[in-house]
Sequence to fold (299 residues):
Amino acid sequence: MIKVIGVRFKKAGKIYYFDPDNIDVKKDQNVIVETARGVEFGEVVVGSKDITEDEIVAPLKKVLRIATLEDEIINKENKEKQRNAFKICLEKIEEHKLEMKLIDVEYTFDNNKVIFYFTADGRVDFRELVKDLAAIFRTRIELRQIGVRDEAKMIGGIGPCGVSLCCSTWLGEFEPVSIKMAKEQNLSLNPTKISGICGRLMCCLRYEHESYIELRRGLPNPGEKVVTPEGSGIVMDNNVLLESVKVRLILKENNKKNEMDLSDDILVFHKKEVKRVEKPRRKKEEKIENIEDLKELLE
Fold:
């Protein structure tokens, strides 16, 4: 086991582990650490704890010191420099007529590098822009193109739910979200209703995904034949959260003509009260003549 602390450099940013190096570091304190980008100023969001070697990304950097008053002043000055650098970069982008949108500017704590974050529809030739910025700031310049989800995280905003965006307030890392998650939650597949302000699928579709998978287990689908306490019937609809199904009973069935008469009344049953009717499987030697036969065999 290895003793580490968790440090965050931005609000709702990713948490990185560092070796406290026998320094008594507590949660909510600010620290100076060594990173791949250089010396950085960060906040301790996870107190000292023991983790396995599999959970760390080697090499594990060390905490240099707990931030002093002087470090706090330098960090505040860097924030002011970032605002000034943002204005200057905007002017230079307009001067070079580049099709890019500047999102944020970040100084490393030791002022060894200035990072400009931007979005663009495609590739941008910003070589001349970098030369101009290097001449102005007299330090290393990095222009980093980011995606629309990162843009929303940096800028912030209000989501369709009326609350500040998860990504800009507490969500440290983005996790994959698929349209399948929306389908399993019986949500409308209208893009305007399941997309966030970034234009991508809402991150919150993932929050209850595992719960829906568990609730849906054993729940018959619409059109499926089931046996209920009242007799055989056809599932007309289901409710995942209530774990219930709406069923119309079969009054009369003609298997040869594949016809059946259903009751007008719709009955509601819990999934534990109904039994799914298994479809007859084809014999192995039976020939599959078309794709529909294949689908039926795989079901």
Remarks:
- Residues 280-299 have pLDDT under 50 and may be disordered.
- Residues 69-96 form the longest helix (28 residues).
